Amino acid sequence: MTTVSDVCRHVRSKNAGPFWVTFDLFFDGEENFAKYAQSPALGPQLFERLFGADPAYVQHYPVPSLNLVKISYARDTPQGGRVERDMHRGQQYVRLLNVELD
Which residues of 83-95 are buried (b: 16+ CB within 10 A; e: fewer)? Predict the structure, then answer.
């Protein structure tokens, strides 16, 4: 099975303001971008399962000129809440690395 880490040269996660989290998947070339950018495996259900995101608020933005897919979801609570464990969400991308794409 092909995983995200097999076809992406870089994957990162970060805040997109205090109410959203975003993931950037930089594919290692046009071929893998074309093959996997719209993969159902990267759909809203994945973000619901891994991060507890409401699927209705998962947004998917392919950027062909950069071989990049940006996927964002609304946070349950604003950044900096009492139970925050990763305030900048910089470590959340790790959960995506072993996601199987086919």
Answer: eeeeeebeebbeb
Q: Name the nearest CA neighbour of 12 among 72, 64, 57, 63.
A: 72
Dump pLDDT digits (tens) for 17-47.
899 999 999 999 999 999 999 999 999 999 9
The distance of Cα 51 from the centroid of its chain, to the nearest Å, equals: 10
- Chain segment 45-74, per-residue pLDDT in tens: 999 999 999 999 999 999 999 999 999 999
Strand 58-63 relative to strand 68-74, pairing: antiparallel
